[in-house]
Design a protein that fits this description.
single chain; about 425 residues; alpha/beta; Rossmann fold; 7-stranded parallel β-sheet; about 50% helix; about 15% strand
């Protein structure tokens, strides 16, 4: 039956590939992904010659999953410096932003999941261990790894009981797929219980925790020494930082901020759009057209008491959160909230919108009192004013956020107890 299911998967796969090529005509990100993979195998043939004989392959979908992988990579390098680390990305944004990451020996795109590509890719990188982060499992690559008897770890694994993987037929296919893994190391007990519904016989399913907590604490310690904004700009001000915002977030935030800034002279707003394109920056600026002054981050040397800083750089959000009094995390009025741990680790209250069920940590932050859900400009304004006016409430909420992060530290060390078993 396994052969039948994989045969059906590979029958429909070319249709998906045709769809992706058609989609690339209208979507620049998809087009970048196709162009980036064009000479993948030619690049690999020359690059792998510089790698050590022992290699671990770590696959991530995009930036969020790579953040989960970083503490694993760091600890692996410390404990096994003789190994080479190969990281593959599915997303072009993740690859482009991370391809110069120094702790990885080779960073590449993940090839399209055909049988031929899987065999060629794995014959070139020749991993002794494969680690997939969170969920991005590609069946033909998993099956080829299994055929080669390469141990496979799914780390930071998450699975909802409402997942499409439980649909009829799809569930059976994933039963065969998951049974090819060595370890499924989940974020929570609930995730582990969900995986067990596949009636798996081969992999060990264990609760490990989330390595993002380790990574976010490490990053916060690293960036505390950075000085992204001159001290006089932020001194004696309450700083509201809106990170990774989309237009849907800004439609709620900007009317709120215009009202807050009108009545409070001690508030400085910093807006960090998720995609700081020229169009996105100009759209934000146009909405502050009633006398509220704005300045772009790249022009801060010419700062003259503007009320709103619009960040036109990438990769600095974590370093900006340290200035925050209150933070908002975007994506939560679009398709799902972004990383809520990044502001929480600085001990400040976190706000986000209603679409946050994609994030277990967001829900848990709300439960512990470290975060607040907003639904419209009215309650956003009310929440902001309360946190700005009542320091004791703000401090308590921030302390709860930081305590929550620290209580989840240690997943990377737990994961390594399982990895060590596969290396001996």
């Amino acid at each position: 039956m396994e052969t039948v299911f994989f045969g059906l998967y590979n029958t429909f796969l070319p249709l998906f590939w045709i769809f992706v090529h058609c989609w690339s005509i209208f979507n620049k990100k998809v087009k970048r992904a196709l162009i980036g993979r064009r000479f993948l195998f030619e690049t690999l043939r020359s690059s792998v010659q510089l790698l050590a004989q022992k290699r671990v392959w770590i696959h991530v979908s995009s930036m969020g999953e790579f953040e989960q992988a970083k503490p694993i990579i760091r600890l692996f390098k410390e404990q096994h410096p003789q190994w080479s680390i190969v990281v593959s990305f599915f997303s072009p944004s993740g690859y482009e932003h991370s391809r110069n990451y120094k702790l990885a020996d080779l960073i590449v795109y993940h090839p399209f999941d055909s049988v031929k590509n899987a065999k060629q890719f794995l014959s070139l990188i020749r991993p002794s261990l494969a680690i997939f982060i969170r969920y991005d499992l590609w069946p033909n690559h998993i099956r080829e790894l299994h055929r080669l008897r390469v141990p496979i770890v799914l780390a930071n694994a998450t699975l909802s009981f409402q997942s499409h993987r439980f649909f009829p037929f799809v569930k059976t296919f994933h039963h065969y797929l998951f049974n090819m893994l060595s370890y499924i190391l989940t974020v929570s007990k609930s995730d582990a219980l969900a995986f067990q519904r596949f009636v798996l016989s081969s992999p060990t399913v264990a609760v490990m925790g989330d390595t993002r907590y380790d990574q976010v604490l490490q990053r916060s310690n690293d960036v505390r020494q950075q000085h992204l904004i001159a001290e006089p700009i932020v001194t004696n001000k309450k700083i509201f930082i809106a990170g990774s915002t989309w237009p849907e977030d800004e439609a709620i935030l900007i009317p709120t901020l215009k009202k807050v800034l009108q009545y409070r002279s001690d508030v400085l707003a910093i807006i960090v759009p998720h995609e700081p394109t020229l169009e996105a920056l100009e759209a934000i600026e146009r909405q502050f057209d009633n006398g509220i002054s704005t300045i772009r981050f790249s022009n801060l040397n010419d700062y003259t008491n503007e009320r709103v800083i619009i960040v036109d750089s990438v990769g600095i959000l974590m370093g900006l959160y340290k200035y925050g009094t209150v933070a908002y995390v975007g994506g939560s009025f679009k398709q799902g909230v972004h990383n809520v741990l990044e502001p929480a680790v600085y001990g400040i209250p976190v706000l986000f919108g209603p679409r946050h069920t994609n994030s277990q940590e967001a829900q848990q932050l709300v439960e512990c009192g470290g975060a607040f859900v907003i639904h419209e400009s009215t309650d956003c304004y009310r929440t902001l004013c309360t946190l700005f006016d009542y320091e004791d409430q703000r401090v308590i909420a921030g302390r709860q956020a930081l305590t929550f992060v620290k209580s989840h530290i240690g997943a990377t060390e737990q994961l390594f107890t399982y990895i060590q078993n596969l290396l001996t």
